[in-house]
Every structure is written in structure tokens, then in C-alpha cells.
Amino acid sequence: MKLIIAIIKPFRLDEVKTALLGMGVQGMTVTEVRGFGRQRGHTEVYRGAEYKIDFVPKLRLEIVVDEPDAERVAQELMEHARTGQIGDGKLWIVPIDAVYRIRTGEAGTDAI
Amino acid sequence: MPEIDTGDTAWVLISSALVLFMTPGLALFYGGMVRSKNVLAMLMQNFFAMGIVTVFWVLFGYSLAFGDLGNAGWIGNFDFVGLKDLTNGVTGTIPTLAFVAFQLTFAVITPALITGAIADRMRWVAWVGFIAAWSVLVYLPVAHWVFAGGWLADRGALDFAGGTVVHVNAGAAALALVILLGKRKGWPRDPMPPHSLPLTLLGTGILWFGWFGFNAGSALSANGVAAQAFLNTFVAAAAGMIGWLVVERMKSGHATTLGAASGAVAGLVAITPCAGFVGGMAPVIIGLITGAVCFLAIQLKFKFGYDDSLDVVAVHLVGGLLGSLMVGLFADDAVNELATDGLFLGGGADLLVEQIIAVAAVFIFSFVVSYVIGLVLKALLPKGIRVTDGEEDTGLDLTQHSETGYSLERV
Hints:
The complex is a heterodimer of chains A (112) and B (411). Chain A is of the alpha+beta class. In chain A, 20% of the residues lie in helices and 36% in strands.
């Protein structure tokens, strides 16, 4: 099993969610986060004074998938999160030791 | 026995409520501009003014400001301590108690204006000490000089609703305090953006609404002068907004909501001394000039390195100064028989000279006494007047009041 973690632009969430549900993904977790990469931040102006805001709002998606599905889900996610502009975010995949469903105690792929 | 006019009385009572509403409005105007960790402290410093100043006012404040009316002097007397003998009194065409209430609301909001400058770093106890001392030692004398026939009014200076008494006075105190307190940690290197501009815009709306009572109520009658002051107030705020936004758009590329709010307030500040003395297109000119100049005046704090957090100096001191001087240019005795014609209406420079003297006197007095009050508090209070570095990092809400403004997202 794999954990896909993606940092995306907030306004892409709906499209990404719809696309992933359409390909059979069962669930996902989303967190509001702030960060920067090569895009860096943006500038805000208050009463003529410019402030550099380094950490821009992003969403962090976490999706647990069965190992054979990981690459396909990741590609689909990227396709729908992409705008082609700088600041589209990052995606990485990490292995998972074990997964359980808390209500039933089911383990492994049954718990996804 | 002077007659009480019911219409005049009704208008002054309503105006008193309108002006009192400006203080919570100001609290929101400022509160939105600070970071979320300091929002309650900002609201509290403003709200507290409604507490302490009111009690002082009925105990002895009214008496010291308005006792011995028309004595051409420096301060009132103790004749009306505890509102003694005022129960059935008449002032002009209204009950004296209505006048007491109306003037009280001015005494409340004036020290509240100072809080924007000292945001994010003054200890609560130090603010309590400062507002208590300042309300007595600075506000009461200056109100007497100008509003109660004291020496400035006697010389012929005009101030319809408080350009000198309220705005120059509070602005000078703000400048003195920020010099004494020092800069916030990280200013101007670190960004300290407003945490909620919607709050600031809401506060601006409340201020604009309440300002009708502030200026038109200062006619102390429901008459033509009140209507003129009402309309002037309306127009100057609008023109102030336009003036600010035009210059802001040219200088920094965007017209901002904070700019719209600030420009409207700048226009309101400048029209305050002029409100019942000018007519025609004067409020348009006064508003446009003030909006533009106040925006440019923001740069002073970066140039001279004083951390006036929410620009009380640029908006209230500079705006109050401009408005008070423009009385000397635009005052029109056809608008108000109590006015003398200003420079642009053929009255010569006499009035302008008196306005300059009044502004200078109030600025110097307020600046010096405010600075001394701050110095004394710094020496007297065991922990001084400024929070520690750690408290500043954590925020004043938690360290000064043991509360948090927004706890919706807490686990």
C-alpha cells in the first residue's frame, strides 16, 4: 500500500476530487497548509507599504491506495491539479507498513 | 429663564448616542488592522475609554472642562463636581444634562483615537494609567480652551466639532507615545498585515454613521447649520475616499479597501473643524486634498523611523491639522453667524493666523504633557509601559487579558 501526498492549489480541489472519485478512489483527507517552493510568495500592499508574503495558502491531499493503483492515481491527480502556471505544487508517494479501519479492525487493502 | 426647545433637545440626545457608537466603530476599524493575536487588546483599549472617561466626566471632568464658561482662561472650575446643581439647568436651548452627555461622548473617543498608534506593544496597566492621566491633564484643559470659551476661543479660533480638541490633540499624544514606546519587534522589516479588513470596513461604516452626530450635533440645535454640517460631513468623507484612492492607485498600483476606508476617515477628520462654518463646494475640496495628503503622510513614519502602527499621525494629526487650517481659508459667515470669513471669502488672513496659533498650541501642549505622562508611568510602573519581547511574540490578547479572539479552529 502507498500513501500519496499532494500539495495543490486550493481552487483545483473540486476538479481533483471529482476525477479521483470517478476512477474509484474511496476517500481522501485534505488539510489547509501554507508553504512555498520555487514560486515563492506574493506581495501585499497596505497603505502604500509593500509586504512580501512568503507562505502562500495551499491544500495538502492525503490518499491511501493499493500499490498497483498508486502510479495511475498520481498521474490522474496531477493532470487535474495542473494549470501550467508556476505554483502548481508537488506530489510524492511513500510506502505504508499497515492500514486498519478503526470501526471494524479490518486490515490491509480491505481497510482502504 | 431660557426656554428648552424640544426639537433641539431630541437632536442632541440622538447625536450623543451616535457619537458614542463611534467608539466601538473605531475599535473595529483598528481591531481589523492588527494581527489576530492582538485584536482583543485593541478592542479593549477602546471599550475601556467608555468606562473610565464616563465616570471621570460626571465626577469632575465636566466641571473642569465647562465650569466658568467663557472665562478666556486655561481650565474650568469645581462648581459642577458630581454634576452638582445641573439637574434643571438649561444650556442654550437644551437641558444642560443633554449637553453634558453630548460632550462626554467626545471626551470618550478622543483618547481612544490614540490606541491605533500604540497597537501591539503597550502593557494594559500602562494604558489604564495613561488614559486616566491624559483625560484629565490634557483633554479637559484643551476642551476648555476651545469649546468652553477658553483662551483660544476668546482669541477667535474656530473649531466646529473638534479638529484641534479631538484630532490634533489625540494625534500629538499618539506621536509622543510611539516615540517613547519604541518600534514593534521586527518593524518595518517583518510584515504585519491586517488580520480582517472586513472588520475595518464595518468600523469605517459605523464611524461615518456616527460622525453625523459628531458634526451636525455640534450645532446643538436642529437647524440649518446642523443640516449644513450634516451634508458637509457626508461629502467630505466621500471626497476623502476618492482623493486617497486616486493617489494610492497612481503610487502603488492598486485601489485598496483599506485605502477607501482610510480616505473616508481622513475626509471626516478634516471636515470636523469646518463642518458648520463652510458651505458650497468647500467640503469637496477639503476632502480631496486631505485624502491625498494623508496617504502621502503615511511615508513620514518610514522616513523618520517612528512606528505609528495604524497611522494615527498620518490620518488624525495631519488630517486634523489640514482641516483646522482650512477653516481659515473656507469659513463663511453666510453659513453660520458665529463664523468670520476666511481668506478665500475676503476675510483676510486674521482667522488663518488664529487657526495656526490654535493648532500649534494644542499640538505642543498635548505632545509635551503626553510625553511627560508616559515618562512618569515608565518610572512608576514596576514593569514599565511596554510588554516583554516574549509577551509581544505571544500577543497581547493572551498575555494581557487571558483571552483569544478567535478559537474556532482549535483542537
